[in-house]
Amino acid sequence: MTKLYLQENQPAGVPPLQLTGERTLPDVPEENYWFRRHLVVYEWIAARAHGRRVVDLACGEGYGSAVLGRTAASVVGVDANPEAFEHARLKYTSGNVGFERTMIELWDGDADCVVFLQTIEHVQDAGAVLDRIRTLIGPGGVAYVSTPNVLTLAPKGAERSGNPWHVHEYRAEEFRALCERHFGQVDMLGLFHARKLRAHQWAIEHAGWDAIHARLGFTKPFYDRFTSAISARDFRLERRNLDRALDFLAVLRP
């Protein structure tokens, strides 16, 4: 039987969301790695969004919109999913953060910054979405678009990861070329492991760690503690070695 993962310790009156694999969630201990992997990108953008009028397209649970709201002049989180929208509205709405339920292609509002993270791999016509984003930000705006690197997401030698929600998964140069067809300025960064995650990755690749913990029989207690201790500081963004990145972040200007 597949285990059902629900968010823990939600505020009174806020229904917890179920982990489906389509979106990541905070407050699910087993999901902490993926949550922090996404959170660090939101925090990086927030540090550069001071005074911006931001729309967070496909905002999901809403935690990223709340992070952006720490620095932005205003944030609108947009998601079509009714459960995610209601959860985000109840949990994160504040003086400068609000939420709207609509399709990302249909949203129209006052924004000079678009955030569109870990979603372009889900859409059928990525070019049309990028054209729409360029229109939304206007001539002086900026967009942040991220997607996983198929070379590190998929099993070695496989063409794609097998995630049923993904329409297309990108390599670095393919993603850059897509962005350059629709924007005049494209700055590409990669997300990498840092600190303890980098040490853990080295142990797997060079010290046979997977075999060691299995042989000694402490896999679950180790990873229960290890996963819950991961923070945003265990990731870093760089502009080099993009083929080895976990995810790509494109900073786009007209």
SSE topology:
Layout: H1 32-46, E1 53-57, H2 63-68, E2 74-78, H3 82-92, E3 97-100, E4 113-116, H4 126-137, E5 142-148, H5 150-153, H6 172-180, E6 185-193, H7 195-206, H8 209-216, H9 219-228, E7 235-238, E8 247-253
Parallel strand pairs: 1-2, 1-4, 2-3, 4-5
Antiparallel strand pairs: 5-8, 6-7, 6-8
Alpha-carbon distance between the two ends = 49 Å
Beta fraction of the residues?
A: 15-25%
Residue share in helix:
25-40%
- Please state the average pLDDT score: 94
What is the CATH homologous superfamily assignment? Vaccinia Virus protein VP39
| Principal-axis shape | globular
Task: State the major sheet.
Answer: 8 strands, mixed
Q: What is the C-level CATH assignment? A: Alpha Beta
Radius of gyration, rounded?
18 Å
Order of helices and strands: HEHEHEEHEHHEHHHEE
Please, how many helices? 9
Strand adjacency order, main sheet: 3-2-1-4-5-8-6-7
What does this protein structure show overall?
It is built from 9 helices and 8 strands. Helix 3 links the parallel strand 2 and strand 3. It has helices at 32-46, 63-68, 82-92, 126-137, 150-153, 172-180, 195-206, 209-216, 219-228, and strands spanning 53-57, 74-78, 97-100, 113-116, 142-148, 185-193, 235-238, 247-253. The chain is 34% helix and 18% strand. An 8-stranded mixed sheet has the order 3-2-1-4-5-8-6-7, sandwiched between helices. The N and C termini lie far apart (49 Å). With 254 residues, the protein is α/β, with parallel strands linked by helices.
